[in-house]
Amino acid sequence: MKHLAKAILTMGLTHILSPGSLFAQPLSDDVGKQLVEAHCNACHTSDRIASSVGYNQTGWQHLIATMVNLDGNPNREKITAYLAKHFPPKSRRNPQLVEGDLSVTFEEWVVPTLGQRSRDPIEAPDGSIWWAGQWGNLIGSINPQTGEMREYPLPASAMPHTVTHDSNGNIWYTGNKNGTMGKLNPQTGEITEYKMPDPQAKDPHSAIFDDNGALWFTLQHSNMVGRLIPSTGEIKLVTMPTQDARPYGIKIDSEGTPWVACNGSNCLVKVDPTTMALSEYPLPNESTTVRRLDIADDGMIWYVNSGRGRLGRLNPDNGEVKEWPSPSGPKSHPYAIAVIGDAIWYNESGKRPDALVRFDRKNETFQSWPIPTGEGDAQIYAGIVRHMRPTHDGNLLIHQSATNRIILVKPEAQKN
Question: Which fold has domain 102-414?
């Protein structure tokens, strides 16, 4: 089925409702409580407020402005005063930052539609940057030279989890809520949907192309891995060997073999690209879970041990595993990961601010930085980074979905 998307240039501010609105936990009785419930809990549960780093009143105003437009609302002061009183700044989740010789800069873009949970940025062959606005049911692009942005509304209930691109410049997304894979032609705005052939395959998640043009993807809660051949539209699905393994991140090695991370079990899984037979590689400790993985030029599989707060490496030739404790400890919840040259980059999503961590795989040393949003006195810290990918020139694309930001990280020269 095809759908013609209308490209929207720098859209107006929009209030997006989330599907979790009905499950807010009780808030403290005080002046402003009902206003917070009406304006904040309409979009997300109040446990998201409680789990934040906390802010003063000015900080709450800056953060709310990235979610919903309260300009001219006579109750804004009461709302932010309530939040500042009951959710002030706190340090219990501060990361353990590690100093080092490298410096980085963060260049950010605020995407147009508020509350969309922008995520998973990727650089296309023409240098444009694409992202998925999951709660906004859209995908968008940035011209990094001019800052111009376009947003493309998707078919109903697609709720894209990620975006990727093919060799022809088409942009693909995973329809996480309507069981589809979708392709956008940026030149025409035309969208083509590919429905899952199995009604149990409900939640396409992460996706990547191999060099032969096949699109590989995971379906986390459906516990499946899929392959789509764009030239025919054929989709083949296989179920993970372990129940509730929850396949999450997926990458392709130099031989064209897909590797999958298990977010519900202590394993990585190798996929035969021809037969789609699945081979499990067990990882130490039953509490190990893996959000994402990446593959170095020497064939080593690097992964984040999200369940135990570690960085790990699997040698696929002999199954040998080595892990390093992340700087902020067992509750740091490493999430996204990318290999760039001799560096392994990942984030500690269990901390506030979210820490960006660099691991030198030759020297086995760490360095880390807080990930900012905004500038000067408007700077706030709110995670989390769910995916990161390198650019063609060795920089790093990340995001802050809670604050509508796409961020380009540029490693700089060594400090003197």
Answer: Methylamine Dehydrogenase; Chain H (2.130.10)
The domain spans of the chain are 102-414
What mean pLDDT do residues 369-375 have? 81
CA distance 35 to 75: 7
What are phi and psi for residue 129, nearest 5 degrees? -110, 130
Residue with tokens 């995973």: 174
What is each CA distance from 382 to 17, 121, 342, 346, 399, in whole angstroms? 19, 17, 29, 16, 11
Peptide bond into 89 cis (omega under 30): no
Residues forming a β-bridge with 218? 225
Q: Strand, helix or coil at 103?
A: strand
Arithmetic mean of pLDDT, 280-295: 98
**pLDDT digit string (tens) for 93-125?**
899 999 999 999 999 999 999 989 999 999 999
pLDDT at residue 20 greater than cutoff 50 = no
265: which 2 tokens? 């079990």
d(CA 330, CA 256): 33
Query: Which pLDDT score, from 0 to 100, does residue 41 have?
Result: 79
The angle formed by the CA atoms of residues 371, 135 and 141, to the nearest 5 degrees, is 65
The residue length of the chain stands at: 416
Token pair of 329, please? 């400890």
For residue 131, the one-letter residue type is W
C-alpha of 218 from chain center: 14
Q: pTM of the prediction?
A: 0.90
> What is the SS3 assignment for 406?
strand
Contact 323, 305 (CB under 8 A): yes
∠ CA 18-20-23, nearest 5°, is 140
Q: Please tell me the distance from the alpha carbon of residue 268 to that of residue 262, in angstroms, as a whole number.
A: 6
- Exposure letters 64-86 (e unless 16+ CB within 10 A, then b): bbbbbebeeeeebebbbbbbbeb
Residue 295 has φ and ψ, to the nearest 5°, of -125, 130
Q: Please say whether the beta carbons of 226 and 236 come within 8 A.
A: yes
Coil/strand/helix, residue 275: coil
- Report helix angle 57-65 to 76-86, nearest 10: 120
